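pinned: reference chain
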Amino acid sequence: MSEQEAYGAGDGPSGPRAGFWRRFGAYLLDTIILGIPYLVLYLIVGQGVAYALSIAIDLAYFAYFEGGASGQTLGKRALGIRVIDFRTGGPIGYGRAGIRFVARILSALPLLLGYFWMLWDKEKQTWHDKLAGAVVVPTSAYPTA
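pinned: its structure tokens
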């Protein structure tokens, strides 16, 4: 197999990919999970401080879970999907998971275009996936170790 074939030079993705609605559902679950500490902080310290601390908590949550061996946040685990390295199929690591989290801002800025990009991208990657060199896949096709 040539390198082009290995990395998806054909018409479709180079392997099974998680669909839009599964990814959306996982993110919705993660948002609910992360909304709880935000609400508690909001009630204790007020909106500004709670928002700043919430961003730090969100970064730590996504970097830890998506960068770890399973590549799954709690929402992704519930929906049976995970984040993997596009080239190797292994974990993306904590640093790239952090980059992926921060890059979500770029995906959101132009009317969420970066999120919807996966709908017509050959590898079903969002902009933050591309920047982190990652893909989101079903665990049925790419089981965790």
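why pinned: The two ends are 26 Å apart (CA to CA). The mean pLDDT is 92.
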